[in-house]
Each structure stands twice: as structure tokens, then as C-alpha cells.
Sequence to fold (163 residues):
Amino acid sequence: MDTLKLKILDLLKEDARRSAELIATMLGAAEAEVAEAISEMEAEKVIVKYATVMNWSKVDDEKVTALIEVQITPERGRGFDAIAERIYLYPEVKSLYLMSGAYDLLVEIEGKSLKDVAAFVSDKLSSIDRVLSTKTHFILKKYKQDGIIFVDHEDDHRMLISP
Fold:
């Protein structure tokens, strides 16, 4: 991938709302060249989606997010891919990663309640052939996501005490 496309990706990752015109100005390139590069990357599925990062803790819509470590026995001839495909097709699954280390897959899911997450793990995930074990971790608070800090810093109003 050429340098221009990499620079465009960096700028879009920082703010997906940037126009081809603004990116061209920032990079000192022709707007048509930037627009063509973006179109090519969309066609090649380098750019898959433009998304908004939201701080859900500021919205009254309560969601429960869990990270689930999954140990599996790979399928002969297909390895981890066949099981991963079964898992990522569930609508609750937001992300799925093949991992190195103590477990094989890391599944991120979202539910309306702890009960929903528990039902997903017991009824859907654990019942898949070749799933050996699961370990569920609930996200209690997000401090930072995709490079964006969510925590509002409050000024320290304590009085200084000196000896």
C-alpha cells in the first residue's frame, strides 16, 4: 500500500467525517487523487465501515458488555475458522479474535442484562461442539476505547496542607 493511502487511513481513523477535500489540503495532495484512493480502499474492503464511537455511560440505554475467553479443540482441516464462524454469526457478538496464550478465542458480546449474557454463554456458546471451556469477564467501566478517553477529569478541590 502506498504512502498516500496510509496517511489517508490515519486521518480517517482519527476522524471519519473528514472530507476528501480536507484530507487533500492536510496532505498537500490533489482532491481527486484522495477521493480516488478512498474509493479504491472501499472497493478493496480496506475501509470496511465508517463508525461513531459513543460513550454509552452518558446515555440512559443500559447495556452489559462481556469479554469471554473460549478454549476450543480445532476442527480437522479447518482449524479454528469453522468454530469461529459459528460464533461470529450470532448477533450478540460484537468482536471475535483468535488469541495466543491460555485460551483460543476472545469473544466480545453485548446484552441488555447480566441474565442475557449468561443465557448466551450457557445456551449458545457452551453448547457448541469442540468448545471446552469459557471464562466470562464483565466490563464495569470503559476508560478508553479506540484511542478516545471517556473519563471526565474533575479538578482537585482539596486544600493543600503543608507541615
